[in-house]
């Protein structure tokens, strides 16, 4: 069994630096695009056989050291009472976003095991299909990012509805985040019980907050998830984008491994997190660069990691659709080649 990803998460020595990529399954792969011609994203996420197939697509053709469950951060929304769809070229769109305190009444208390039982089934099937080839990562969203999607109704650059709500109705804001945290804590523990061997909590929008606001409006709720999931006994990764200014605060909320975007050199970020492993942190757009530049930037990340136990190689955010598959394949191979430590024969 290839366990170098799990070993690195535990900050144990490894035979080569483990690699996986956020959005390693997706539109840059022709097999995925072919399936998407026949099924919508939600159909794939809600069908165990289809999501197993998509999860395995990158595992078959790229030297990745982990698989990540193919699902979406917002998948729980429908069952919660927030009807949404993915609009081509735009991203998620929620039919009736939460804009007023009264809107909170539309949220339903639901059991993750009941409403997302099919996702847990996908995890079980995946463990069988993977048969120890690589470990399986489960995931979920942090309350701030989920609340921001629920309030904005889709992607945003200013987060104005979110912040207006948070600043003017702090009590309702905290109730909303507690609701998401309760659901997520249970959902993540259920993923581990179903077979997930590590978990990543995405707080993709945390970088929108200044430190004081992160600490007041986001940290307590993310921490309440980590506090409840820690007992499940698997490595926990905590990732935010554009969150360089609040890395220590993100780490304080929880996680064994902190996911880094590309904005701060890896060694400088890691120096701020002496008790943690780190995951990252190549700019995903370097996969559109000539090979020479891609490899030079990769060497820089690896040099800054310095072969210290606790580094998981990844991008600073997801693979973009325009990425040539060959570049992803070459990058994974290159990281392994550059970091491989010869092993004794017996
Ligand atoms: O990493 C993986 O391979 C696992 C799959 C995965 C998806 N979404 C599939 C997906 C994961 C881990 C996610 C998480 C997710 N979803 C996040 C957190 C990570 C991040 O990017 O910060 C967020 C914010 C979402 C919400 C979401 N889903 C957005 C904003 C979009 C549209 C953006 C885009 O790239 O078009 C999605 C759609 C989505 N989720 C796609 C995939 C592969 C696009 C593919 C499609 O339309 O077929």
Radius of gyration from the CA trace?
Answer: 19 Å
**Strand percent estimate:** 5-15%
Mass-distribution shape:
globular
What proportion of the residues is helical, as a percent range? Answer: 40-55%
As residue ranges, the low-confidence spans are: none
Strand order of the largest sheet: 1-4-5-6-7-8-9
The CATH topology name of the domain at 4-76 and 125-145 and 193-339 reads TIM Barrel
CATH class of the domain at 4-76 and 125-145 and 193-339: Alpha Beta
Main sheet, how many strands, which sense, barrel? 7 strands, parallel
Structural class: alpha/beta
Q: Give the number of DSSP strands.
A: 9
Q: Give the distance, in angstroms, between the N- and C-terminal Cα atoms.
A: 16 Å
The chain-level mean pLDDT equals: 97
Count every helix, treating DSSP H or I runs of 4 or more residues as helices: 15
Short description:
With 346 residues, this protein is an alpha/beta fold.
Structure description:
The protein has 346 residues and is α/β, with parallel strands linked by helices. The protein has a domain at 4-76 and 125-145 and 193-339: Alpha-Beta Barrel (TIM Barrel), CATH 3.20.20. Helices cover 47% and strands 12% of the residues. It is built from 15 helices and 9 strands. The protein has helices at residues 4-9, 30-38, 41-45, 48-61, 77-80, 112-115, 117-130, 143-152, 160-168, 170-194, 211-229, 247-253, 266-271, 291-305, 325-339; strands spanning 67-68, 84-87, 91-94, 136-141, 198-203, 236-240, 257-259, 277-282, 311-315. Strands 1-4-5-6-7-8-9 form a 7-stranded parallel β-sheet. The protein has a two-stranded antiparallel ribbon with strand order 2-3. The longest helix has 25 residues, at 170-194. The radius of gyration is 19 Å and the shape is globular. The model has no long low-confidence stretch (mean pLDDT 97). It binds coproporphyrinogen III. Coproporphyrinogen III (CP3) binds at residues 22-27, 36, 41, 68, 70, 72-74, 86, 91-92, 139, 155, 202, 204, 241, 318.
């Amino acid at each position: 069994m290839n366990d170098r990803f799990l070993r690195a998460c535990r900050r144990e020595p490894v035979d080569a630096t483990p690699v996986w990529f956020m959005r390693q399954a997706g539109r840059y792969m022709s097999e995925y695009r072919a399936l998407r011609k026949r099924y919508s994203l939600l159909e794939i996420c809600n069908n165990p056989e289809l999501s197993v197939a998509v999860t395995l697509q990158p595992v078959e053709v790229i030297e990745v050291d982990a698989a990540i469950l193919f699902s979406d951060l917002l998948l729980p929304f429908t069952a919660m009472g927030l009807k949404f769809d993915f609009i081509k070229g735009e991203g998620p769109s929620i039919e009736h976003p939460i804009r007023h305190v009264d809107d909170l009444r539309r949220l339903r208390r639901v059991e993750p095991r009941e409403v997302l039982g099919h996702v847990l089934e996908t995890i079980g099937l995946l463990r069988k299909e993977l048969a120890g080839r690589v470990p399986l990562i489960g995931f979920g969203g942090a309350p701030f990012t989920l609340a921001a999607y629920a309030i904005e109704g889709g992607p945003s650059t200013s987060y104005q509805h979110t912040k207006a709500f948070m600043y003017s109705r702090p009590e309702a804001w905290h109730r909303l985040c507690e609701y998401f945290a309760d659901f997520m804590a249970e959902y993540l523990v259920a993923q581990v019980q179903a077979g997930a061997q590590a978990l990543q909590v995405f707080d993709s929008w945390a970088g929108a907050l200044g430190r004081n606001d992160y600490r007041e409006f986001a940290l307590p709720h993310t921490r309440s998830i980590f506090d409840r999931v820690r007992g499940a006994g698997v490595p926990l990764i905590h990732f935010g984008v554009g969150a360089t200014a609040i890395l220590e605060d993100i780490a304080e909320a929880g996680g064994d491994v902190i996911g880094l975007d590309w904005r701060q050199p890896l060694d400088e970020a890691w120096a701020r997190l002496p008790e943690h492993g780190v995951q990252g942190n190549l700019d995903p757009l370097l996969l559109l660069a000539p090979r020479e530049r891609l490899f030079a930037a990769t060497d820089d990340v690896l040099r800054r990691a310095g072969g210290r136990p606790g580094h998981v190689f990844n991008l600073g955010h997801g693979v973009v659709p325009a990425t040539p598959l060959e570049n992803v394949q070459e990058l994974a191979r290159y990281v392994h080649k550059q970091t491989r430590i010869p092993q004794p024969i017996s």
